[in-house]
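Q: How would the C-alpha cells look for this protein?
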Amino acid sequence: MSNEQNRAAIDEIISRIDIVDLISENVVLKKSGSGYQGLCPFHQEKSPSFHVSQQKQIFRCFGCNVGGNIIEYYKNYHHLNFIDTLKELAQRCGVELQYNKEKSPENQKKEELKKTIYQAYKEATEFYQWNLIHNDSSGQIARNYLKQRKVPKGMIDKFLIGYSPNSWDGLYLFLQKKGFSPDEIKESGLVVEKEHGGYYDRFRNRLMFPIQNEKDEVIAFGGRILDNDSNQAKYINSSESSIYIKGQHLYALNFAKNKIREKSEVILVEGYLDVISCHEFGFENTVASLGTALTPDQAKKLLRYNTSKKVIVAYDSDKAGKKAAEKGTLVLEEVSKGTGINLYILQVPSGKDPDDFLHGEHSDQFQQVIDSAKPIIEFQIEEALSSDFSNSENKTKIVERCVEVLLKIKDAIYRSEMITKIVNWQVNGQKINIREEDLRRTLKISDFTTNRSEQKDTASNSIPYQQYNNKFQKKEYKPKYDKNVVDFDYHKKRISQAILAKYEKEPGALQAEKGIIYYMVERVKALDYIKKRLENTEFQDPLNEKIKNIIFNLNETNNIKGWKELLREMPESDEQVRVVEIWEGFSNINVASDKILKDYLKQVKLNFLKLQRDEIRVGVDEAGSIDEKEIVEQLIVEYQLVQASIKKLESEIYSN
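A: Here is the predicted structure in C-alpha cell form.
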C-alpha cells in the first residue's frame, strides 16, 4: 500500500468510526465536561484517569500516559501490529484496503505459502495430539513421562501437548494425505531433506510442545527426547520458516498476556514444563524464552503488556541456570535503557527449578518466593560477594565487581544502602573487612573516570572536539569572526550528555518547545514565520524535534490541517502521547497572541545559545588540557560571540 493510499485509508477509517463508540465496547465511559472519562483498560486503577475527546477523536490516560487516536487505542487494546490494526478496523467499517491488489505475483505466492504453512502446523499439532492420546504402543512412553512429571490432563489440553511417533516419515505421509505438496511440507520446516532425495520427520519419539503466537496460532514446536540414554539433544526446536523467526517469540505469551497486564508483572522461566506448572498453580503471568539466551526482541515483548515494567527472572538455581540468568539479565538491562524496567531475580530454594518446587511439598510457598525476589542490583552485588574473599587478590576482584554494579545506581540513598550492605557482608561469621571510606574512594574515582570517558566519547563525535582531538584537522577549523554572526552550524551537531542533562533541568525551555508545536498546529498560517525564526535552532527534546520536523514536512505538502492529520503521521505511541499531551496542556492558550509565540521562540533560542556556550566552555577546558593554544584562542572568540548573543536576547526577554 502506497503512502497516499495508506493515508487515505486511515482518514476514511477515522472518519467512519467514532472513538467514543469504539472505546465504550470495553470501557464504561461517563460524560465529563466536554469529553468522557472512565477507568483505564491499560492499567489497574480505582479512580478514573482515562479521558476521551469526541470532538478531537483522541484519548489519553493521565495515569499510565497512553494516548492517541482510534488506531493507537485498538492496536494497544488488542495487541496488534499497525497493519493488522488497519485490516481489522477497515473490515469493521467497510473500508477497502488496496494493498492486496498491488502485490506482485511473487508476493502473492509468498502470502499463500504462509497461509499453507500455518495450516500445516495446525494439522501437525492435531497429529501429535492424536498420537499422544490414541497411539497404544509408542505413545505410552510419552504418557508415562507426563504422569511422572505430574502434568494433568487440563494442562495437556490447554498447551496442546502431543507426541511425535518413533517413525521416519509418519508426519510427512500424514501431511501428504491432507493435500500438502512435498515442497510445501519442506518449506514448513517440519521435515528434513535427505542427502539423496526424499524427506524424513524432524521430530521423532519426542514429547511435543507447540509454540503459539499471540493470536493462538501454532508457529513452531519444541520437542523433548524421551530416550534419556540417547546421544541426541535433550530439546530441539523447529527451524526458522516464513511464520517463525527464532528470538522473536516467547513460549505461552498467548496465555499469559492478559494476566501480565492484570498483575502488571511477568515471570520469566527457563523451560516448557516450568511454564506449564506455573500456569497450573495459578501463576499465569509466566513465559519462557524458548531455550535460548534472551534476545532484545523477546525482552521488549516482556514489557508490552506490563505497565509497571516489573520482570522477575526465575531461571534454575544450578550453575547453568545462573549463567543463563546472567546472560538474560544483561540483555534485559540493555533493552531497559530508557524504559525504566524493574528487573528482579528469583532464586528457587534448594537449587530446584520452579516445576520441581511447585510439585514438591511447599507449593503454597511459591508466592513467598516470588515476593522475595531481589532487584537486579542487589542480586549482582550478592553474587559478587559470594566469591571467596579469604585472600587479597580475590577481595580486589570482588571490590571491582561491586563497584561496577554500584556505578549503575543513580539514586544516592540507594547507593549508600548498597555500600553499607557490602562493608557489613559476612559469611559464617567472617566479615569481608572492606573499609567504607576505601570503597567510597574507589567508587568516586571509577565514577569520575567513567563519566569523563563517556563525555569524551560523546564529544569526540561532535564539534568542537573533532578539531583538537586530531591535530591534522586543525587547519580545517575556520570559525566565523563576524561580530554580528554566530556560527550556529558549527555548534548544532551532537551536544554532550553532560550538557543535555543540565538542559533537562530547564522546564521552561521544554514548555516553550511544546508551546511552539501547539502554535504550529493551531495557527498553520504562522508556520513560515516560525520556521524562519527557528532556522539553525534545534529543539533539545528529541521527541519535540521529531514532531516539529514532521509538521514542517506536512506544511510543504499542504497536508497539515489540524491534530488529526498530525496524529495520522505518527504510528509510534510515544509520539502520539506527546502530541495529545501538548494538545491537552496548551488548549487554554490564546493562540491569537503574537506575544506568547514570540516569547516561546525567544526562550527556545536562548536555551539553544546557552547550550552552545556550555559546549564551547567544555571545549576550551579540553583543548587547554592538551595545550592546544591556537584552538583555545579560537574557541574563546566563539564563546564571546555566543555570550554576546545571549545577553542581547536576555535583555529583550526581560525588558518585556
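The longest helix spans residues 594-625.

The mean pLDDT is 79.

Upvote if useful.
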